[in-house]
Design goal:
This protein is an alpha+beta fold. It has one domain: Glutaredoxin. 42% of the residues lie in helices and 28% in strands. Strands 2-1-3-4 form a four-stranded mixed sheet. The longest helix is centred in the first third of the chain and has 16 residues. It is globular and about 30 Å long. The two termini are 19 Å apart. The mean pLDDT is 92.
């Protein structure tokens, strides 16, 4: 993941789980916002990547981490609406 975070100016990392209802509701919001902003998205399944989730302090899903130039700048936990997510990304884009 570190390569993705440093290869792009703004990267939104979406920690999710297939069994998570709010994660499924958030997926189209993330896809829409990242398609319309400068952010790239990296999706991380917490069940398949438990070590990575622990490394980033993910305790619940969905958790969104926003990186700018490889630095973690925002952490959003829980279901986010499109306007909120777009606002956070555009602040750093």
């Amino acid at each position: 993941m570190s390569d993705t975070a440093t290869d792009h100016d703004v990267v939104l990392v979406d920690f999710y789980a297939d069994w998570c209802g709010p994660c499924q509701m958030l997926e189209p919001v993330v896809e829409t916002v990242t398609a319309e902003t400068a952010a790239k998205v990296a999706k991380i399944d917490v069940d398949a990547n438990q070590k990575l989730a622990t490394e980033y302090g993910v305790r619940g899903v969905p958790t969104l981490l926003l990186f700018t130039n490889g630095e973690l700048v925002e952490r959003l936990v829980g279901l986010q609406d499109e306007a909120q997510l777009r606002s956070v990304i555009e602040e750093y884009a």
